[in-house]
Amino acid sequence: MPLIALTGGIASGKSTIARRLREHGAIVVDADQIVRDVQAPGSPVLDDIAEAFGPDVLDDSGALDRAALGTRVFGDDEALQRLNAIVHPAVRAESARRFAAAFAENAAAVVVYDVPLLVEARVDDPWDTIVVAHAPASERLRRLVELRGMEPDAAQKRIDAQVSDEKRLALADIVIDTSGTIDETIARTDAVWSRLTAV
Ligand SMILES: CC(C)(COP(=O)(O)OP(=O)(O)OC[C@H]1O[C@@H](n2cnc3c(N)ncnc32)[C@H](O)[C@@H]1O)[C@@H](O)C(=O)NCCC(=O)NCCS
Ligand SMILES: Nc1ncnc2c1ncn2[C@@H]1O[C@H](COP(=O)(O)OP(=O)(O)OP(=O)(O)O)[C@@H](O)[C@H]1O
């Protein structure tokens, strides 16, 4: 069963593409969701984050204050790398467990890893195919501001914390252009589906 890596810059449309691939029958492993799972209250990862960044990054219930930590790390490379060093090993381990479970289940045509930081956090390449969701950084900035209500400066800091579109596109086996309408993205994803299951 092929293992597909789906990556793209923030607000590039990965989740939109992943949802469509799941409708086609793929098992999707979502790195962003795994991040939230390993950061759950009481987790070793959250204890390490609180130790590294102080109690201000926890809310009154002891859960991670995601906005507060985001403000601390985006725009501060040293702080971001410190956070990544805490979170990424747990994300990699849990992702591997979910891949193994999906392959053991063997009930799908492909396994898709929806992973924003494929390039930035690259360790090894078990991927049969790398799919990149691509919209220019300017369009992604517009989406973050107009659709998610982010402050322009905060949105730009998140974009700047990731590799360039050129660097990410250089790794792509398949590119899905998401700069048009949602319907065009869906149609392009459908066209890619047959290529993914033929691997
Ligand atoms: C900083 C945190 C608390 C902000 O949480 P928030 O809920 O605002 O954002 P969320 O986690 O949903 O991420 C949204 C998007 O931000 C971008 N992003 C998140 N973390 C990072 C990072 N370390 N480097 C670059 N971009 C990132 C990705 O495009 C991601 O899809 C959180 O993103 C985090 O803990 N990040 C570190 C773990 C990580 O690297 N996650 C990326 C997926 S592997
Ligand atoms: N042509 C398009 N294709 C996909 N998404 C689009 C398009 N036009 C606008 N959007 C919007 O852009 C936003 C980003 O989409 P999505 O959540 O799929 O991106 P993402 O890459 O998963 O984001 P993140 O990096 O935060 O996980 C969504 O609100 C989506 O509705």
UniProtKB/TrEMBL annotation:
One Gene Ontology term of the molecular function aspect: dephospho-CoA kinase activity
Coiled coil stretches, renumbered: none
Keyword Nucleotide-binding among record annotations: yes
Pathways involved: Cofactor biosynthesis; coenzyme A biosynthesis; CoA from (R)-pantothenate: step 5/5
Main location: cytoplasm
Domain of life: Bacteria
Reaction equations catalysed: 3'-dephospho-CoA + ATP = ADP + CoA + H(+)
One record GO biological process: coenzyme A biosynthetic process
UniProt binding sites for ATP: A11, S12, G13, K14, S15, T16
Organism: Microbacterium ginsengiterrae
Record's subcellular location: Cytoplasm
Descriptive protein name: Dephospho-CoA kinase
Role noted for this protein: Catalyzes the phosphorylation of the 3'-hydroxyl group of dephosphocoenzyme A to form coenzyme A.
A Pfam family matched in the record: CoaE
Keywords: ATP-binding, Coenzyme A biosynthesis, Cytoplasm, Kinase, Nucleotide-binding, Transferase
Annotated EC: 2.7.1.24
GO cellular component: cytoplasm
Keyword set includes Nucleotide-binding: yes
Family designation: Belongs to the CoaE family.
InterPro entries listed in its UniProt record: Depp_CoAkinase (IPR001977), P-loop_NTPase (IPR027417)
